[in-house]
Amino acid sequence: MRKTLMRYSLHSDFIIYLIRILIGFSIGYFLYISFPEYSAIWALISIVLVISPDDNEATKIAFDRTKSNFIGSATGILFYFTNLPQMWSMLLGVITSVAICRLFNILSVARTAMVAMIIVVVHEHQLKSYVAALDRFACVTIGCLIGLIVTLSTSYIIKILREKYSMETFSE
Fold first, then answer.
1. pTM for the model
2. Percentage of the chain with pLDDT > 90?
């Protein structure tokens, strides 16, 4: 019974996704609670955005979403420092984010870049502080890296467990 449950779980994208999200969310929530003086909520959001439900391409998607979030956050900071009106900052930021994603051949995750850029621009224009822009950028980057590490580490563990349980089926 336990072996059957393990075999099913190790080949279920749904179960694997839930495990990854729970691990990532727990780490992000710990950061959010532990460091209230920082914008750690954005790390938590970034973790959830980076982790993918599709186990077949989870690593590629996690890398692409991490790059995309980084592009969007960096673009948001760039346009924060231009001192353009918020609407122009966002419009030019959207164009720039999409163009950079196209340049890196990750256009499929350009939406993530645009969301990160818009959040940085809107949030920072309200606070009128470059420190807040850098804080948001750092939190998004940390969140993306955590999501990526969770994806890579669970992929490695799942691969080992799949090999172990598939070998046991032949020896029964």
1. 0.80
2. 35
